[in-house]
Protein: FecR family protein
Organism: Pedobacter alluvionis
Amino acid sequence: MDSKGINELLERYRKGHCTADEKKALEEWFDAKAEKGNWEWSQPEETITKQRIKRSIDQKLFERKSLWPIVRIAAMLFITLGSLLIFRNDIRDWADPVVILEKTALEGERIKISLPDGSMVWLNGGSKLTYPNRFSKANRQVNLVEGEAYFDISHDPSHPFIVTSKNINTQVLGTAFNIKAYRYLSNLQVAVTRGKVCVSNSAGTRSAVLLPNQLVTVDSQTGVMIQRTVDAQTVISWQNGDLSFNNDRLADVCAVLSKKYRLQFHFRQAEIKDYRVTAGFISNEKISDILSILASANGLSYEQQDRMVTFKKRPR
């Protein structure tokens, strides 16, 4: 086979136009050359071969250069989309900042609130609650600034629900409980109607776990926690306008009555303030009947002049 025929065959082979017989002939020629070691080229053959080699290399480089911008753009898009997925909450907070909402129930008023996660809150009179318009990815946290509230929390194990009030944290996953945290009272109370609740101080040095029909009292001065069993339904009877007291100090009972009936109280003997009261009164109970019951149950007498009520010990 002469050099011209070989060149034409090589060109057909390069373009993929060779028949099976032509491929076989070309391979036999190549094997014969390799066996003899005879690879002498004429000047035209060498020039043509160099040009073909250069065209082949240039074509490969062009293909790589053409793909590189596409690869770079794809990589940039991948990084951008990945960042958006990772930081989507931070980006959302930047574009649409979280807003803290505030709800207040006036004295004698009771209101119902629906939280962003579907949990429900009932506020007693003289109470204030603050909460975000959407909860964070870590937890669901609200603040009972003042007063009393009953919480019915949607179950979500991955996002604990936390109520802060008077340096006390009440944490749950999904349950129903009542918090009484008026500033004018000497303690904070948490009672559970359903589920399980963990109550702890902000330092984490004291805590109590409550089950249904259990109540914990946290002294506002000392932080001491006292846990006991109660009828939780009586604790939340305030939703019907009733009054309920569970081993409360007489001073705290009178503080509640002072708000409801606009009275002032005086104690002739200081120790009377610490007398304990467990009682319940319906919404339309007369104040005179309530005062009589409180006095009788504690061995006291009382006298009222206008808006001032004075309790004193009965003479023996």
About this structure: The first helix runs from residue 3 to 15. The chain has a mean pLDDT of 84. The first strand starts at residue 100 and ends at 105. The two ends are 142 Å apart (CA to CA).
